[in-house]
Design goal:
Shape: elongated
Order of helices and strands: HEHHEEHHHHHHHHHH
Strand content: 5-15%
Number of helices: 13
Structural class: mainly alpha
Largest sheet: 3 strands, antiparallel
Number of strands: 3
């Protein structure tokens, strides 16, 4: 889903992305300083929260008794901002500030730049933003890791892939991520190959199969539990 948001709402996302979680008061004060009316400044954060691009958390009580709200980006909000304002924001700075929302690769931005992958990291971030915003449901950091793996190892030219592999081999955390995810991908695809091979046998088989038995043979089995566990701990 691509969200239809105004430039003023984008200004809210950009401010929070660049400055971190902020209270409603701080945000409204900043927006008024850049010429956005108090009414819009007050309405924009709640409108973005309703769209799932921001989330509000209570941060105590004001003297009036009103609950103080602190707004911060959601993953969908971060990806929407990257998709719509990639040339007007510092991707590296924002990726580092909001690294808890993103795959491990973007935590290693400085290392990857030093390895000669600056343009590739930016391209990967933008590609991931397009993919994430287009998803109808919630997107998790694990889903992003899997999509980033697909982008690096399946969608790149051999020349670019070699650059990624060299860099990944030189960093312990990236190597752990790539190895764990590759094992998971291979385990899943081996199961699908087995099912498809059996399907082909059934189609070509001269005699009538035992269909009750074949129902079990054609059932997809979960991949290695160890690979699932290893992938989940990579960020923590």
């Amino acid at each position: 889903m691509v969200f239809n948001i105004s430039e003023k709402q984008l200004a809210v996302l950009k401010w929070i992305a660049e400055n971190g979680p902020t209270t409603e008061y701080e945000l409204t004060k900043h927006l008024r300083e850049i010429g956005i009316s108090s009414f819009i400044a007050h309405q924009a954060p709640s409108a973005l929260a309703q769209k799932g691009l921001l989330k509000a958390e209570p941060k105590g009580k004001a003297r009036t008794g009103k609950t103080i709200k602190q707004y911060q980006l959601t993953l969908k909000g971060l990806l929407t901002l990257v998709l719509t304002m990639d040339r007007r924001i510092n991707l590296r700075s924002i990726a580092e500030r909001w690294r808890h929302l993103l795959p491990l690769v973007f935590e290693k931005w400085s290392y990857l730049v030093s390895a000669g992958l600056e343009s590739e990291v930016v391209a990967a971030f933008n590609w991931l933003a397009i993919w994430g915003v287009q998803q109808a449901g919630d997107v998790t950091d694990v889903m992003l890791m899997e999509q980033l793996f697909n982008y690096i190892f399946h969608l790149q030219t051999p020349k670019v892939k070699v650059k990624w592999i060299k860099a990944i081999r030189g960093n312990k955390d990236l190597k752990q991520w790539a190895v764990a995810t590759m094992k998971l991908w291979l385990a899943e695809n081996r199961e699908w190959i087995k099912i498809n091979e059996r399907t082909l046998e059934l189609i070509e088989m001269a005699e009538e199969p035992d269909w009750q038995k074949e129902t079990a043979n054609l059932r997809w089995l979960p991949p290695l539990k160890e690979a699932h566990r290893e992938e989940k701990v990579l960020k923590y």
